[in-house]
TrEMBL record:
This is Type VII secretion-associated serine protease mycosin. PROSITE patterns: SUBTILASE, SUBTILASE_ASP, SUBTILASE_HIS, SUBTILASE_SER. One of its GO terms (cellular component) is plasma membrane. It comes from Micromonospora polyrhachis. The keyword Transferase does not apply.
Amino acid sequence: MRPRQVPTAAAVLAATVLHVIGGASGAAAAPPAGACHNPDPGRNQVRAQPWAQQILDPQRAWPHSRGAGVLVAVVDSGVDADHPQLRRPGKVHRGRDFYLAGALPGAFDCVSHGTGVAGIIAADPVPGIGFHGVAPDAQILPVRINDRDVGGQGESLRIDPQVVANGIRYAADRGAKVINLSLAGLDDFPTIRAAVAYAVATDALVVAAAGNAQRDTTTELPAYPAAYEGVLGVGAVDIDGARMAGSQIGRHVDLVAPGAKVLATTRVAGHTYVDGTSYAAPFVAGTAALVRAAWPELTAGEVARRLVATASPARGGRDSRSYGAGVVDPYRAVTDGLDPDRPAALPAYVPQPPDQAQLDRAAWEHDTADTAKLLATVVSGGIVLAGLVVAIASRGRRRRWRAGWAATVPTEPTVVEPPEQIFLISEPKRE
């Protein structure tokens, strides 16, 4: 485990003064002097809409929730609060740096990892840029716990467990309703386990990356803190919906989200394409912020169950070791069972007086119909009777009206005898 770098007292004092003077200006998120020894370079802006935003389409949920009022803690490498999509006043809090000694803020980033995570959660949509966060009205609490101890895919084996635990407890104490942990390791550290349990007890929903150490499709590797009780573990899928190579499998995978070649914000105002379950986790954390804003009465555990229950089907089927319950679905997570409009009150029932004219007309129509049926029956009977009279009169004239007798019925039926011989073919010759 690498020892933490401790800046000089002068550097810490200068950094603190810089932050206080900077206020909400661009200098506020500039790294303190001496804090970044090998900072990532700035990146260009990417204007195209990323595939993850197209597939998840969180804008569909925005008419019902944009995450307003929900504080999401990003326990990571810090957050560049000067990024154009994160600089809206009140979006990124000052936070705290637990990695360097001193009273430093967490609102700066040397390596862009935490800035990318924060952007996926809550980046504002801006004209001309396709990228945006899942919950743009959510607030970010940056908790800086590392620098270069997190690799490009979120490897965190060298992070000081006590620093991580301190960051988690701080986030819970500051009222974070969602805590994003885009880090994973193979070791179960009691201090981190206790900090996670502390956060869960404060009703914070803890979302953690499932890890990127998978080398085959059969071996289940441990992944902490994703495997801790009360934590929502997130695996990564690619643009085709297949498990990203390296995304760990096992019972700790509750959901999956885009994590292969996804676009994320970087320090110094840019964007870049990244891989890893570290970047899948914030898609779920952002969705959790949407749900907590739309359904404030739900507990963290109920929010987690809602996210799992509304997930879209994935390749592995329901509850698979690779895909969990499926792909997170922001729209369904927010809207299933939601009726944003209160039902209108029914007017009091006032009986209307009967329309006598209408009743009279209905009675007249009914009587007229009965009369017509009776007349039709009488006319039909008269026609039949007239036909019988005509038939009888015609027969009587032919007989000159004399009485006639019916033919006598024989007492015994006449029997017709067959010939004595019947030859079927021909009569035989006689000699």
